[in-house]
Amino acid sequence: MSHHPDAAGFRAAASRFSTGVTVVTSSDGDGAPVGMTANSFTTVSTQPPTVLVSLKRGRTWQAVSASGRYAVNVLAADDVAIGRHFAGATLAQGAPAFDARDGFFLLPAAIAQFGCEVVSTVEIADHTLFIGEVRWCRHQDGLPLAFYASRFRNGLGAEILPSDGLAYPAEGWTI
To answer: What is the pTM of this model?
Structure first.
């Protein structure tokens, strides 16, 4: 007999695992940047350097599927507005500017960046795991933006409240 938790119970339990916050970027069919906030990023191997992201079907999923490439931008603690923007909350000042490097779209303030070529995919339920070999990476110092208990937090665990007057949704954020 198989027992599965309900979706709300599963989401609440999974939210107790603190994760970093990234923006996964790629280019659409016209070469324009697309991106989404994701906390489903992990390293897989150091030889060769390999990472994976788990993406739900949407614009970024389509871009990564078509191009076979993606960049992972690890956000700093003060980048909560950028994280919210790519999770679907429109920024008053518009979309963040990208830098481009070797055809990858990067967020300049990110504390780490990985440019990846997809080497394998795995379909799981409504998501695809995109396993990417890291072609290059770079980093800078800074506290990371974290996500815990459906709230953005700084790298020390303190909650970061929205500064633009918009409250978190009552049911919490899912990234």
So the answer is: 0.84
